[in-house]
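Researcher: We're teaching a course module on how sequence relates to structure. For the next exercise, students receive a sequence and then see the predicted structure as tokens, so they can try to spot secondary structure elements on their own. Here is the exercise chain.
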Amino acid sequence: MQTKLRTYEIIPNKNICFPIGTVLAVNQLYEILDLPSVFGKHKKNGIDINNLLKALVSYKLTDNFSISKAHEWINREEVLDKRR
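Model: And here is the predicted structure for the students to work with:
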């Protein structure tokens, strides 16, 4: 149990945190609603559109930022990594 503050000054950084529950819920509902068959036929090359849509929906459900900043989040190396 923490009994005292470790710092009095908060230093902002570029780390992005988001609840994993939101991502899991979006993934589950995306499959239940069979959205891969709806959107998958519209894009064949490059990054799978379904992964892009899941990331965008998760982002919008967890952050209050404008959609204009979503490109910064979605174009990060970790998000674009195809191994995930």
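Model: If you want an answer key for the exercise: The chain has five helices and no strands. The mean pLDDT is 78.
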